[in-house]
Amino acid sequence: MKIFEHALSLAPRTGVIGLGSGRAATAFVSALAEEVRAGRSAVRGVATSSATAELAGRLGVPLVSLAEAGTLEVTFDGADEVDPALNLIKGYGRAMVREKVVAASSKRLVILVGQEKLVGKIGSRGKLPVEVVPFALPLCERKLRDLGLDPVPYTADGRLFVTDNGNHILDCRTGPIDDPAKLEAAIRAIPGVVGTGLFLAMADVVLVGRDPDFELIEERRRP
User: Fold this and answer.
1) Average pLDDT of the residues in 132-152
2) Alpha-carbon torsion 47, 53, 59, 61, what sign?
3) Is residue 122 part of a domain?
4) What is the pLDDT of residue 87?
5) Taking a C-beta distance cutoff of 8 angstroms, is the pair 170, 195 a contact?
6) Does 121 map to a domain?
7) Could you report the per-residue pLDDT of 56-69, keeping only the tens digit for each?
């Protein structure tokens, strides 16, 4: 069984759910669309990115705004790191602020990842994305450097990348993080920081798959 197939068994048949971004989340949206077209699901989705919204619309998954949705039943999303306590780093797909907002609006957060995303300590893959408002970019770079994070502006096609929120991303080079909550608080205290890729104590279920087809090998639940 694929992880996105198992994820469908955790999804309600009606109501509103969050639709994440990235490779695993895209596979889930595609599987959900088949259920919707077959009449086996009447859910509506809240997309965490313009890319997910475009995909859902093309495949026939009905969407609503976060304002229309209120509290969501569950959000299905991917992650770039998962530690043993189910803390996450997200944001390599550049949508982490909207992903965090949608996750926080949900009763449950279900994460779908390949086994290569499992780490012994958060930060082990060496990158923590931080979204900042454009005006504050120089200040945020300086303050993040003071925290020892070595920020690098993310670019695409030779230009500063612009998120769906109209902001920029600083990829902070890091190693394993001893105190993620303390680091999150220190980064969020910098004027101009919109959000970070640290998702602490937010995931309820993590479904782990084996590449290349995301074959389900493990389900982890937060105590």
Assistant:
1) 98
2) positive
3) no
4) 98
5) no
6) no
7) 999 999 999 999 99
